[in-house]
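Section 3.1: Structural characterization of target chains.
Under the original work plan, the team committed to producing a structural model for every single-chain target entering the pipeline before any wet-lab resources were allocated. The record below documents one such target. The sequence was received from the expression subgroup and is listed exactly as submitted; it comprises 175 residues.
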Amino acid sequence: MERVSSLYGKLLTGLALVACLLLFLMMLMICADVLLRNVVIFPSVRGLAWSNEVSESMLFLITMLTAPWVLRRGQHIRVDILLVAIPKRLAWYCEWVADAFAFVCCLIMMVYGWSAATASFNANSMTIKTLVTPEWWLLAPLPAAFALLAIEVLFRMQRLYAGERGPRDDAVSAG
């Protein structure tokens, strides 16, 4: 199980690196847009009309690519003021309840995302802004990301079971 978890962690790290590349490309695109709006390099080009739309989509994709990696590293938002105040064993059970709830939520979002993406694909829905693109292109990462999050929650539960009977210490606490 440890080997599978390690390989899965490498997959998530790879997706985070892809997100870093997208962020870099987005930065270049926005810089080019600003430059072309303010400096006449090509007489017929005054900015990149599609850059706002593409950057919005890239931000969404970056979020979907990095969410499971952030969860694995314990760098998600975590309010644990109650967990550090109650007995350790009870806090451990609270962690289990939170993980079970997170797992169910991830599965629901995965199914809903799949349903929305397939409905959009089957209806041949298009997003019409500056660019005209199939709507499902933007919806497709949603079920994949939540499937990866659900898998990571299972690994978190396994690590919680194998660890000390107390609250996790994988996130920074104010306490």
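The beta strands are 126-128, 132-134.
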